[in-house]
Amino acid sequence: ALALLTPTDLAGVRAVVSAGGTREPVDPVRFLGNRGTGRQGVAVAAELARRGADVTLVAANVEIGIPPGVAVVPVTTALELEQAMRDAAGDADVVVMSAAVADFRPSTTAPAKVKKADGVAPPTIELVTNPDVLAGLVAARHPGQVIVGFAAETGDDAGSVLDHGRAKARRKGADLLAVNAVGTDQGFGDVPNAVVVLDAAGDEVGRAGGSKADVARGLVDLVAARITGVDT
Ligand code: CTP
Ligand code: CA
To answer: What is the ipTM of this complex?
Structure first.
């Protein structure tokens, strides 16, 4: 009876979702990381799978359990994530970039543990820029493929959360960009979330809020409408 109540509007749809946060190695025991836990991306993967999609999760250091029925490709660094997303996105109908990808990585990884010594100045970590995975996926997008990005923003002197989100939506060219305000008590970890969803022109197409599962449901509704062309 339960199966009859499960909407399978995404049966036959192939989806790939990235989640978590990349780690960029400094030496064999240290990395530069971020506060992405994978919760929001995993919730999106679970919602897509629940609605019948065939889901691959590219998981960067995801700290929580993976939903049943979701295929997992584990990755550590931004470069690994880029390769895994490229491989999986080729024949995907839906691509969701939820992972927090490091913008920069150490230019070199020390082959042995970096040691401290009395009277020796601390080392400087030189950084290089990582590829923009989402931009690469948008550039390689095939007709009919729906690409979704996330943007974690804080307001600043240059503009509000939404100002920054609109500019990013236009710059990134993803079909949908889910903008959320992040702070110490919002966005990261096991906390409620709220997103404003913009299209590639920067126009608002929807909002979703509540638990990360609620946000996932709202976002997947917008994705489903773009795939089928029908508002669900
Ligand atoms: N993203 C990506 N590759 C990167 C950086 C970000 O694919 N090297 C993706 C994220 O997964 C997210 C979207 O781009 O879906 C926006 O990420 P965000 O960090 O908000 O934007 P940036 O373009 O990196 O800009 P900035 O951090 O300077 O605000
Ligand atoms: Ca960034």
So the answer is: 0.99
